[in-house]
Amino acid sequence: MTAQQLILSLVLATMVFSVALELRIDDFRRVAQTPRAVLCGLIPQFILLPVGTWLATLALDLPANVEAAMILVAACPGGSLSNVVTHMGRGNTALSVSISAVASVLALLATPFNFSWMIAANPETASWLRELSIDPSGIWLSLVALLGIPLTLGLWFSHRLPALTQRIRKPLGRFAVGALILFIVAGLIKERQLLTLGLLPTFLMVVLHNASGLFLGWATAQAMRMNERDRRAIMIEGGMQNSGLALGIIAVQFGSDLGMVTLASLWGIWHIVSGMGLALYWRRKDARLLD
Q1: Distance between CA atoms of residues 291 and 289, nearest Å
Q2: Would you state the pLDDT for residue 268?
Q3: Of 276, 280, 253, 279, whose CA–CA distance to 264 is shortest?
Q4: Cβ count near 52 (within 10 Å)
Q5: Distance of alpha carbon 9 from alpha carbon 234, whole angstroms
Q6: Phi/psi of residue 196, each to 5°?
Q7: I need a surface site. Which of 75, 84, 182, 221 has the fewest CB within 10 A?
Q8: pLDDT in tens, 137-189
Q9: Are 158 and 165 in contact (CB under 8 A)?
Q10: Could you tell me the end-to-end alpha-carbon distance of the chain, in angstroms, rounded to an integer?
Q11: What is the reported pTM?
Q12: 3-class SS at 78?
């Protein structure tokens, strides 16, 4: 593992740890109390967006590594910023945290499973992986290191060391998010020769892919008749995929393949823009209703 890959892995592990510090036993009790709402938030993440992405890669004529990156991002659980954005957008933050908690645990099995079958069922990506001699099951090991271990440690800290958790929670969260954004920006600057008009198709694809996740979250919430605050949380959870986790997997399993890194990095930046934009829109909407 290179120094760059190690730094990214540590940043991502810190981010997951900081998110886990926000979780409490009560969050899991809420899961038991509102299973229908939590299930509604999991369906777009683990079923609709992955399947929709796989169908899109079959229809589009894209480089195999770009298609693999799209599949990997779609297979990852919701992003760690979703709880913050939901709170800012006055959605149901408790539901958002509950969905994130369950999704993080499910991802240990669901992400490798979804990635493996989608890659294998696409002739382009399947042949590309065979050429690289990469075993998709190796994604599971990356998830244990980048998600499972820091998640478990964070939950242990929040339960056993509440005073220390309270002191470090916000500073650590800000540091982890800031470090990830800096890492993404630094990577784009390093490869700035690629930031040309030729990148616009990839950026447009990221925007449409992200919009699809948001729409599928909204549509699922509508179909299951969730209230307004729940719809906001589910919509954000459906569209803010953990591109940071995808970047970590790309670094460890795919040797930081440039095409994959570019797409995941663009997603990492854009989903923050789209999520914050939605939160601002909802706040203004609420303000107008109060006038």
Answers
A1: 6
A2: 79
A3: 253
A4: 17
A5: 28
A6: -120, 180
A7: 182
A8: 556 666 677 667 887 888 888 878 888 888 887 788 778 767 767 766 776 67
A9: yes
A10: 56
A11: 0.76
A12: strand
